[in-house]
Amino acid sequence: MSIGLTRIFAKLLADGRLATGPKSPSEVLVVIPSDDRRRDAAATAGELRARGLKVEVYHEAAKLGNQIRYASRKGIPYVWFPPFGDGKPHEVKDMATGEQAPADPGTWTPRP
Length: 112
Prior knowledge:
Blueprint: H1 5-14, E1 28-30, H2 38-50, E2 55-57, H3 64-74, E3 78-81, E4 91-94, E5 100-102
Parallel strand pairs: 1-2, 1-3
Antiparallel strand pairs: 3-4, 4-5
């Protein structure tokens, strides 16, 4: 005997009767600009995590467009760009507004 739970849940979701959470618990995706900068990306992620942020690091040094699309598909609200070279600034992109600005991993906080 089957009552079709999958169909029932699909209908409830389609009608908006079930609350759903975000696709990803991550608040920030740290991109990996190149294989040479992988350690910088990991260090930045560690610094953000130490401040209590939920951070994910992209798994490879892929094209930036692919990394940004990944954050968009997962619903991650911020993309963090570690320095792409010595002396360059960190930058963060707000995925909701599209704004990108320099940021300090030691002091930056997401909007409420």
